[in-house]
Amino acid sequence: MPFPKDFLWGASSAAYQVEGAYLEDGKKESIWDHFSHEPGRIVHGETGDIACDHYHRWREDVALMKKIGLKSYRFSISWARVLPDGIGRVNEKGLQFYSDLVDALLEAGIEPMVTLYHWDLPQALYEQGGWKNPDSPKWFEAYARVVARRLSDRVKRWITFNEPQMFIGLGLQIGAMAPFEQNDEDTVLRISRHFYLAHGRAVSALRQEGKQPLMIGMAPTGDVPLPRSNSPEDVEAARKASFAVLPGAYTLGNSWWADPIFLGRFSSEAEALFGNRLPRFTREEWDMIAQPLDFYGFNVYQGAVSYPAPQDGYQEDAYQGSPKTTLDWNVTPEVMYYAPKFFYERYGKPIMITENGMAGMDWVSLDGHVHDMQRIDFLHRYLLSLGKAIEDGVPVLGYHHWSIMDNLEWSRGYDPRFGLIYVDYRTQKRTLKDSAAWYARVIQTNGENLYAHEHDE
Ligand code: BGC
User: Fold this and answer.
1) Which of the listed residues 321, 331, 345, 452 has the most CB atoms within 10 Å of its CB?
2) Would you say residue 3 lies in a domain?
3) Considering the domain boundaries, does residue 2 fall inside one?
4) Residue 403 Cα: closest atom of ligand 1
5) Any idea what the CATH number is for the domain that residue 35 is in?
6) What is the pTM of this model?
7) Number of folded domains in the chain?
8) How far apart, in whole angstroms, are the C-alpha atoms of residue 278 and residue 352?
9) Is-catalytic flag, 127?
């Protein structure tokens, strides 16, 4: 069996998508709180004010996670809950919430994994320029310190940032996510500079404050085009495309963010594209930005996405009627083989799958259950691919399903359902989907049941 004995079978969430408790117990607004209240930002005028009410129902949620048998739960901290103004005064009640959650997880035998930043910048900092402000790396460092001091005695695994591709690429370059800005190239390069420094400073803070040796990573996403065949030429072409730095779309790619952090330099493509407009750093800054991490986290959903969309409306490698999720994302299990392989080969770090999953048309059937067969099949196929990567020598530390429960899918609101747990937002009633029972079996057998179908044939 490919999955190592201590493999972290997990699931993920993010603060704004599940917590609710919008301005409770001293919390102030984040940019998502703020912008979701503007008309037209989120479909149907929805907001995260209540979301899954996880802030109040976390005990029940942890009990459900225990029922599934999760070994790891990845969640994010709401910066504005812990530091309502982003800097300065610490909100003890906010910290207490996370501290209690961590205790309950550990008691349930679930390892907590903390993401410091899953897109919800405190509004107060946004009003001071947000990630454009040269002080932003220091703000992030101070926040990391506060959280590490309080939680690192019990939390071993940490992630600095979730998907710079999305919160910078979509949020600050393309304008499709909070704070919905379209900035010019020089500004985006400046924001990138602050991002690298913020990451580096936070890693230093975590290492300094850590009350035990911590395992630190990042959770990027990014386009991994699939090879057209497994011939060496096609695989090389796909690898090259996976690390491309595309004019106008470089923030959506992999190497723009990962090369400085994992290799301590920009790629030759980035050098060729920007020359001396590239962010410049002193030797000390480079050392801080590129200090060794413990794993390469990756959020993986679909392969063969190409930017910009091709003229004929079809994405590369897809075909008419090819399998898609309800968000129109391609079902391409091979990406779960190639992405870990490509990232391991380039960056030399063990891989942690920090997100993977699909949005489905889930509802509660007359019999009271949620029969999400497509999610089971999706998960089965993707996990078989991950197993194949492990068999081919890629060290993979864990797999985190997105998401533990249905939640607010950002600008797309509550319609897309990604959870292992169904949430009825009228009553907040939770129902374990069939996929949760199926995943529980995967965890119990450490992946062995993934291969059972092979014997049935
Ligand atoms: C994000 C999640 C999001 C998921 C599905 C990732 O980009 O980290 O917050 O809900 O994908 O879109």
Assistant:
1) 331
2) no
3) no
4) 10
5) 3.20.20.80
6) 0.97
7) 1
8) 29
9) no
